[in-house]
């Protein structure tokens, strides 16, 4: 099994000035954040099973997410390179979804965009990650994910695409 403490960049954001829809230009900005959490992965003959809980460390959304996933693991280059294909579901709590997808009454009154209250959601996703060990303590990783947004997120006036793609690059320190 593997247990990890995690700190990561959550790139989800909304910049009103970048919007191509005039009314959305008047909405409040939704900023990226840093998520801290922990994950546990059990390796079995049928692959790895992981649970990963994270919460907003900067207090922007005060949101929490939890992923449940199945991973495969392929080690290459004398075990320096590891590739993890992953399929899973992610639960986002109401605070997370409201910050990134909700439209407040104040925003609605100011812009004419319909107010929207987002609730919690469950989204399926697929991910491929690669990790390269520089030495026994440090490794670097890159991850590409594709998420299918729930109706709770897709129905937001801010969203025009059901699929969300994300690339993450970072480093791990092994204790």
In short:
This protein has 175 residues and is mostly beta strands. 11% of the residues lie in helices and 51% in strands.
Question: What does the largest sheet look like?
Answer: 9 strands, antiparallel
Taking pLDDT < 50 over at least 5 consecutive residues as the criterion, the unreliable ranges are none
Mean pLDDT: 95
Helix fraction?
A: 10-25%
Question: If helices are DSSP runs of H or I spanning 4 or more residues, what is the number of helices?
Answer: 3
Helix and strand run: EEEEEEHHEEHE
Oligomer: single chain
List how many beta strands DSSP finds.
9
What's the N-to-C terminus distance? 14 Å
Q: Beta-strand level of the residues, as a percent range?
A: over 45%
| Structural class computed from helices and strand pairing | mainly beta
Overall 3D shape: elongated
Radius of gyration: 18 Å
Structure description:
- The protein has 175 residues and is mostly beta strands.
- The model has no long low-confidence stretch (mean pLDDT 95).
- Strands 1, 2, 3, 4, 5, 6, 7, 8 and 9 form a 9-stranded antiparallel beta sheet that branches.
- The radius of gyration is 18 Å and the shape is elongated.
- A hairpin with a 4-residue loop joins strand 5 and strand 6.
- 11% of the residues lie in helices and 51% in strands.
- It has helices at 94-101, 105-111, 151-154, and strands at residues 2-10, 33-44, 47-56, 64-71, 74-76, 81-92, 121-133, 138-148, 163-173.
- It is built from 3 helices and 9 strands; from the N terminus they run E-E-E-E-E-E-H-H-E-E-H-E.
- The relative contact order is 0.16.
